[in-house]
From TrEMBL:
InterPro entries according to UniProt: Calcyclin-binding_UBL-bridge, CS_CacyBP
UniProt feature coiled coil, ranges: none
Source domain of life: Eukaryota
Protein name listed in UniProt: Uncharacterized protein
GO MF annotation: an example: tubulin binding
């Protein structure tokens, strides 16, 4: 297959080998190829499957941008979280479940150091830099579904007060974690 390779004002004819991939073609040319003003993303394709057989194809040779070799990127350390396992909860009323987590002087901790996420069947609260550690508290699968948009947390003294808004009045939260019950339905 014959290809016309355009690089600036110069044009060279390139004979593609049978079974050659776009990646091999780019390596042979020493540059990335742009076809119809688009970068070819799947470079493992065969040249003859990308272009029609025996076509004369015009491609542009793009000069690679030189990369500085001495640039060092600081590796981001993964954030480690300690799990909070001590908490209290109760089915507060028809529409709310309350969860209390006690941590000394937590209300004095800056609010921007908290992250809260509520979903249909789970929630998570992350606390950054509290007593020089990162903490997390959450439930991966709650007993019943939550109204995530109306669930919230507040800080008061030594406590994080979490209000989980129920979807249904009749939901009974005998556990904060989803429990299988005899004859119960595990589908929701």
């Amino acid at each position: 297959m014959k290809l016309y390779i355009h690089s600036g004002n110069a044009v060279e004819i390139y004979e593609s080998k049978q079974g050659e991939t776009i990646d091999q073609l780019q390596k042979a040319l020493g540059s990335e190829i742009i076809f119809n003003n688009r970068t070819i993303l799947n470079t493992s394709m065969l040249v003859n499957s990308f272009f029609n057989d025996n076509d004369d194809v015009i491609v542009q040779k793009v000069k690679p941008i030189p990369v500085q070799q001495n640039v060092q990127v600081a590796a981001q350390k993964p954030i480690h979280y300690n799990n909070i396992t001590k908490f209290a909860f109760w089915d507060a009323d028809d529409m709310n479940v309350r969860v209390v987590v006690e941590l000394k002087d937590i209300a004095k901790h800056p609010l921007e150091k908290f992250q809260a996420r509520f979903f249909e069947r789970s929630f998570e609260i992350k606390i950054h830099d509290y007593q020089n550690k990162n903490w997390t508290f959450g439930v991966a699968r709650t007993q019943c579904k939550l109204d995530a948009a109306n669930s919230k947390f507040t800080l008061k003294g030594d406590k994080i007060l979490i209000t989980l808004r129920k979807i249904k009045k009749e939901d009974n939260w005998f556990s904060i974690h989803k429990q299988k019950t005899i004859g119960g339905d595990d589908s929701d």
